[in-house]
Specification:
The chain is of the alpha/beta class. It contains 4 helices and 13 strands. The protein has an 11-stranded mixed β-sheet with strand order 10-1-6-5-9-8-7-4-3-12-13. Strand 7 and strand 8 form a beta hairpin.
Length: 377
C-alpha cells in the first residue's frame, strides 16, 4: 500500500514539472520549417498592438514612413460579424497605401539589421530564411498597410533570441508583404511575422482601440503560387492602385481591370485571385438522346445537305440515268446542212404526187429474197 502511494506521488511530481516545460517549449518553438505553418501549441493569449505602438521587445527602431493610414471598409451597424475570417492574400482591397510611396523604408530596415549580427541571426531564424539572405529577402517584400485588424504570430527580440507571441495588428499598421500576399514584417518594430497559431484563442491582452471587434479580426491566408502584383486602395483619393510585388511604389499604376466594387465599400471576402492550383470547373457532359425516341434525320440548317437534293428527301442511293455520250454527234439537219453525212440512214422520200417512183428507184437497193448474194463471173 505504501509503495503504491509513493509511486503515485512521484508520477504527480513528474507531471507537475513537465507542464511548465511544455508551456515554455510551446512559446519558444511555436513554428516549424520555413513555410509558415503553425505547429501544435497550447492556447495562448493574444496581445493587442495599436497602430503606432512598438510592442514588446522590438527588433529595431521604427521604419514607418509618414503616410496616411488607410481606413477599414465601411460597414453598417447591422452588418454583423464578417462572413469570412480568413482572407486570401491576393484579395483586392486587403491592403492600402499611397501612390508611388511605400509605407515602410525597406533600406533602413536592412541597415538596422545589418548593424547587429546577433539580431540578424535571430531575425532570420524567426522568419524562416537563411541568415545570409536577410537583405535580399527584405528587398523582395512589398510595403503596404493593413485595412483590417489582422491576427498574426509576431516575434520579439529577447536575450539574443526571437520569442514568438500571438498578436492582433490594428487597421492601418504598416507591414511588409511577401510574394504570397502574407504579412512578414511589422515596420513599427522590425519584428518578423508569421501565420497565426491555430490554437490561439486566449484572452486579449492590452487596451483595445476604438472600433475593435474580435468577431471582425481576419487571418491572411497565403496564396499557393507567386503573386505578381497587389491591388490596393489609395489612401489619398480612395482609388485603386496596382503595386508590383517587391517594388517600393515607384511602379504603381492603375489596374488594367479594376475590381467591380468601390474601394470604400469593398468588403473583404475570402475569394481573392483564383488559385491556379485549384482544378477548373468541368462543364456538364452532354446528355445522350432518349433511346426510345429516334434521332432526327434532318440535317442542321447550317450543315450541307448530304443528299445534294436541297432537303427534298430524295433517296441519294437511287440509280441515276446515264449521261449522254459527249462524243455522239447528233443527226444532221437535212434542211440546214449542205453536206449530208454519207453514212447516215437514208431518209424516206416523200411520196410522188403522181404515184410514180423516180427513175433511180426502179430497182431496189437491197437483195431480192430467194436469190443468192453471189454472182458468177
Amino acid at each position: 500500500m505504501r509503495s503504491t502511494l509513493r509511486r503515485t506521488r512521484r508520477t504527480g511530481l513528474a507531471a507537475a514539472g513537465l507542464v511548465p516545460a511544455l508551456l515554455l517549449a510551446g512559446c519558444s518553438t511555436a513554428w516549424e520549417g520555413a513555410g509558415g505553418e503553425p505547429a501544435a501549441a497550447p492556447v495562448q493569449d493574444v496581445f493587442l498592438q495599436p497602430l503606432g505602438a512598438h510592442g514588446p521587445d522590438p527588433f529595431t527602431a521604427s521604419t514607418v514612413r509618414n503616410t496616411a493610414p488607410p481606413a477599414a471598409p465601411d460597414r453598417g451597424p447591422d452588418d454583423g460579424p464578417s462572413p469570412a475570417h480568413e482572407v486570401t492574400g491576393s484579395t483586392p482591397g486587403l491592403y492600402g497605401g499611397t501612390r508611388a510611396v511605400g509605407s515602410c523604408d525597406v533600406e533602413r530596415q536592412v541597415t538596422l539589421l545589418a548593424a547587429d549580427r546577433t539580431k540578424a541571426r535571430a531575425f532570420a531564424e524567426a522568419a524562416g530564411i537563411p541568415e545570409a539572405n536577410v537583405a535580399g529577402w527584405l528587398r523582395g517584400l512589398t510595403p503596404v498597410a493593413l485595412r483590417a485588424d489582422t491576427r498574426v504570430t509576431s516575434h520579439g527580440y529577447r536575450e539574443g533570441r526571437a520569442s514568438a507571441y500571438q498578436a492582433v495588428l490594428q487597421t492601418g499598421t504598416s507591414v511588409l508583404v511577401d510574394q504570397y500576399g502574407s504579412p512578414r514584417v511589422r515596420c513599427a518594430c522590425g519584428n518578423p511575422l508569421r501565420s497565426p497559431a491555430a490554437a490561439a484563442g486566449g484572452i486579449h491582452q492590452g487596451e483595445p482601440w476604438d472600433g475593435f471587434d474580435p468577431d471582425r479580426v481576419i487571418v491572411v491566408r497565403p496564396t499557393t503560387t507567386v503573386v505578381g502584383s497587389l491591388v490596393i486602395v489609395n489612401t489619398t483619393d480612395s482609388t485603386w492602385i496596382e503595386r508590383r510585388t517587391g517594388s517600393d511604389g515607384d511602379e504603381d499604376r492603375e489596374p488594367a481591370v479594376a475590381p467591380a466594387c468601390d474601394p470604400d465599400t469593398c468588403a473583404l471576402t475570402g475569394s481573392g485571385t483564383p488559385d491556379p492550383d485549384s482544378p477548373a470547373p468541368v462543364p456538364p457532359a452532354p446528355t445522350s438522346p432518349d433511346p426510345a425516341r429516334p434521332a432526327p434525320t434532318t440535317p442542321h440548317p447550317d450543315a450541307p445537305d448530304p443528299s445534294g437534293t436541297g432537303g427534298t428527301g430524295t433517296d441519294p442511293t437511287a440509280p441515276v440515268p446515264p449521261a449522254p455520250d459527249p462524243y455522239t454527234e447528233p443527226a444532221p439537219d437535212p434542211y440546214t446542212d449542205p453536206f449530208p453525212d454519207p453514212f447516215a440512214e437514208p431518209v424516206e422520200p416523200p411520196a410522188d404526187p403522181d404515184g410514180q417512183q423516180p427513175p433511180d428507184e426502179l430497182f431496189p437497193a437491197g437483195a431480192v429474197p430467194g436469190q443468192p448474194e453471189t454472182f458468177q463471173g
